[in-house]
Design brief:
This protein is mainly alpha-helical and 82 residues long. The radius of gyration is 29 Å and the shape is elongated.
Length: 82
């Protein structure tokens, strides 16, 4: 009897969640769709900016004097003396 009662309760809870709760949550999310989407876009942009900043910092740290000089020459269109 214990297992059948537990299974019955579990089944009823699942049914209630699917039939009663999930549709209401879906309606609430749909009503807030624009705000949720806007926040997600802002978060993605902030993440991309932070990642680009860290990548730039790492690139600058990895440049030694000679390589940095060559990069700046290339950026400025300066021909090498050699």
């Amino acid at each position: 009897m214990k297992w059948s009662l537990s299974d019955a309760v579990h089944g009823e809870v699942n049914r209630f969640l699917k039939e009663e709760i999930a549709p209401e949550v879906g309606k609430m999310l749909a009503a807030e769709k624009e705000g949720i989407l806007s926040a997600a876009k802002a978060s993605a942009a902030a993440l991309a900016n932070a990642l680009a900043e860290k990548m730039t910092e790492q690139a600058v740290k990895s440049l030694d004097g000679y390589r940095a000089e060559e990069v700046f020459k290339a950026l400025l269109g300066v021909k090498s003396r050699y």
